Amino acid sequence: MTIIRAVHKIEDGDEAVVAQVTLAESGESFCVESHETILAAALNAGVDLAHDCKSGFCGSCRIRLLEGEVAYDEEPLGLSEEERGCGFALACQARARMNLRVAAELMPSDRPVPVEIEAEVVSLTPVCPDILRLRLRPEGEMPDFQPGQYINVVTESGATRSFSIASAPSEGEIDLHIRVIPGGMFTAGVLSGIEAGETLRLHGPHGLFRLHPEDFRPLLLVATGTGIAPLRAMLAALKEEPDGPPVALYWGMRTESELYLAEEIAALGAALDDFTFVPVLSRAPGSPHRSGHVQDAVLADLPDLSDHAIYLCGSPAMIAEARGRFLEAGASVNHIYADSFHFAHNL
């Protein structure tokens, strides 16, 4: 297999390029112009390449270059140097510099179809100074979703706000953990007037971040902030499995008062055969918990990650650093799944 290097910047004044991208698995091909990303051209041609955030954070649209080279306007955070060195690129950010032959995944055919949902507000509770927990009960049947996916809350203006689902499908409620943004249109505006019994419009589920039970590997779950929400959904689903894998969950927060889900996580983990929970605090010297950054704690405990399936959820900075360092520690590039939380300023 020949891997041609990736060019990392498009120079001003480049002539327009029309390239052909061929999928190695099926032989299917489509054309892409120099102003288009590979993902945009694929979707325009009816080729449903795997994707999610379209912003270069999550890594869901990762492809492997077998022939040809690509360029980026800016380096995407969702791709580590190690992955670039192995010939990977992000289709949502990459532009073709010449004809390409790539290995690429398509959107999974078994993913739940997003639907419109009317849901009653069960409760809206502050769980720590800047995080709210919103519990919703759908009218009628629970929508079909996979642990790890997210849902959109639709405002009266039609604007949407995306939040990971923290509950498992069997729990009968949609549990959302929402960080309050001072002055935010949704969190400080819409939610401030919501009461139990009112109805919210939802749309979903969305997203490729989900539990992969087919991996048959020990699970390493790593979160910062409200990135714990989809991992909580995975734990709730795993406790229903009689022969689940070993699970280690590392949760990074700033102070002990922010560990709003610690007791619940411990209770969910107690139902598993082999569960380890490690809170890691970045601004709590003297705390009985581990201190520092969550990715450092993981590597101190697990220097060899070659056997693990790894789920990363939270800040883009954590995910970018963890992805690269975990690959250096032997993690399989095909068994790292990430959901990067990048907040809208007017949230």
UniProtKB/TrEMBL annotation:
This is CDP-6-deoxy-delta-3,4-glucoseen reductase. PROSITE patterns: 2FE2S_FER_1, 2FE2S_FER_2, FAD_FR. Its cofactor is [2Fe-2S] cluster. Residues 19-108 form the 2Fe-2S ferredoxin-type domain. Residues 114-212 form the FAD-binding FR-type domain. GO terms for molecular function: 2 iron, 2 sulfur cluster binding; oxidoreductase activity. It comes from the Bacteria. InterPro entries: 2Fe-2S_ferredoxin-like_sf (IPR036010), 2Fe-2S_ferredoxin-type (IPR001041), 2Fe2S_fd_BS (IPR006058), Beta-grasp_dom_sf (IPR012675), Cbr1-like_FAD-bd_dom (IPR008333), FAD-bd_FR_type (IPR017927), Flavoprot_Pyr_Nucl_cyt_Rdtase (IPR001709), FNR_nucleotide-bd (IPR039261). Coiled coil: none annotated. Pfam families: FAD_binding_6, Fer2, NAD_binding_1. SUPFAM superfamilies: 2Fe-2S ferredoxin-like, Ferredoxin reductase-like, C-terminal NADP-linked domain, Riboflavin synthase domain-like. It comes from Celeribacter ethanolicus.
